[in-house]
């Protein structure tokens, strides 16, 4: 999304500095390029000592919705975890705030746009499902809710890290655990936040959200990747919040559930049952859901050791900075795509026949 100049003054400040060096705190960065521009913040490609980074900035005084502090807080807590960009530096100048972080590749939505028929293979979707579920587990255990689960907020690593799916953009996150680890009390009402094709029913009903609501949004994202659309969100339907809310209520009934999961393995409807039967105060059973995904993959003979689509498709390979595919390389690509965490490492073992232990 491109913002008009009067809505995002950081572009006015920083675009003239492209190609120049700027000092931010104890670091000197070269301003290389503009990566993305939104109504509240901008992202620039910067370089220090020959290493590229992403720098997210927002205006000090004219930002309509300051959210950079949330990116900073989450990455400060989780940037050392695989699947979350590492935090390099953060601070503020007289005119703008900034966070400098690890540079990652394109988001899943962009990769999908360039994929054949704008679809991923089943193997890639199931591995995306397992990795993104684990990212939510880590985020929740750190005390945060995502509240905007969608393909645009997950990106893949570059080059040798192209087998890792990263969680991005924490502008709608909310702390739900107190300092002592106890849960904050659910508010009687909450804002409707997120991208409502994927937003959970709680959000569309203006109820406060809990971790299981992120998992509901995760399921809608995965179903969309599997089917190429959702009953309430495709190229033939205009978005309408009340109608989407009605659809998500209807999908909790047998007829609606059948419609939502038509054309994909029955096991996904079973996962939906686990989600909707988890109370807001309960912790999602990530391990059970992951095992259910793996069970579907086994039943459907889906090879979870196959490379991701962007590791073999020539166009997608270029987007994640992998070189041209050489003859015979398909059989030699390292199949380490699920080794992002002990949890997902164990998931991969299970996918080829080993029992999954509780983590």
UniProtKB/TrEMBL annotation:
Give the record's GO CC terms: cytoplasm; nucleus
Q: Does the keyword Transmembrane apply?
A: no
The record places domain Protein kinase at 29-302
The record's listing under Pfam families reads: Pkinase (PF00069)
Matching Gene3D superfamilies: Transferase(Phosphotransferase) domain 1 (1.10.510.10)
Tell me which stretches of the chain form a coiled coil. Answer: none
Which controlled-vocabulary keywords does the entry list? Answer: Kinase, Transferase
* Molecular function as annotated in GO: ATP binding; protein serine/threonine kinase activity
List GO BP terms, alphabetically. Answer: signal transduction
What name appears for this protein in its UniProt entry?
Answer: Protein kinase domain-containing protein
Source species, please?
Caenorhabditis elegans
From the broadest rank down, the organism's phylogenetic lineage runs: Eukaryota, Metazoa, Ecdysozoa, Nematoda, Chromadorea
């Amino acid at each position: 999304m491109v913002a008009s100049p009067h809505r995002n003054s950081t572009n006015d400040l920083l675009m003239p500095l492209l190609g120049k060096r700027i000092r931010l705190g104890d670091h000197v960065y070269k301003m290389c390029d503009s990566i993305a521009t939104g109504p509240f913040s901008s992202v620039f490609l910067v370089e220090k000592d020959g290493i590229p980074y992403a720098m997210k900035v927002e205006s000090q005084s004219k930002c309509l919705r300051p959210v950079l502090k949330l990116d900073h807080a989450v990455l400060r807590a989780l940037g050392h975890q695989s699947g979350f960009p590492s935090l390099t530096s953060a601070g503020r100048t007289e005119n703008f705030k900034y966070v400098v972080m690890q540079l990652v590749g394109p988001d899943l939505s962009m990769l999908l746009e360039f994929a054949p028929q704008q679809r991923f293979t089943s193997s890639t979707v199931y591995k995306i499902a397992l990795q993104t579920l684990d990212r939510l587990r880590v985020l929740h255990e750190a005390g945060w809710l995502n509240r905007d689960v969608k393909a645009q907020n997950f990106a893949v690593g570059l080059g040798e890290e192209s087998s890792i799916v990263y969680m991005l953009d924490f502008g709608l996150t909310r702390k739900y655990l107190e300092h002592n680890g106890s849960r904050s009390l659910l508010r009687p009402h909450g804002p409707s936040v997120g991208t409502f094709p994927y937003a959970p029913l709680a959000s569309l009903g203006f109820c406060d959200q809990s971790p299981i609501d992120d998992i509901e949004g995760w399921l809608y994202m995965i179903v969309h990747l599997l089917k190429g659309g959702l009953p309430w969100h495709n190229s033939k339907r205009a978005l309408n919040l009340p109608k989407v809310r009605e659809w998500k209520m209807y999908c909790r009934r047998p007829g609606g559930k059948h419609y939502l999961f038509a054309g994909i393995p029955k096991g996904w409807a079973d996962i939906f049952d686990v989600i909707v039967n988890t109370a807001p105060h309960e912790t999602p059973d990530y391990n059970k859901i992951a095992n259910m995904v793996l069970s579907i993959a086994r039943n459907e003979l889906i090879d979870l050791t196959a490379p991701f689509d962007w590791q073999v498709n020539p166009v997608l390979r270029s987007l994640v900075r992998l070189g041209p595919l050489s003859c015979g390389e398909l059989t030699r690509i390292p199949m380490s795509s699920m080794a992002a965490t002990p949890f997902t490492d164990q998931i991969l073992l299970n996918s080829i026949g080993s029992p999954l232990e509780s983590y």
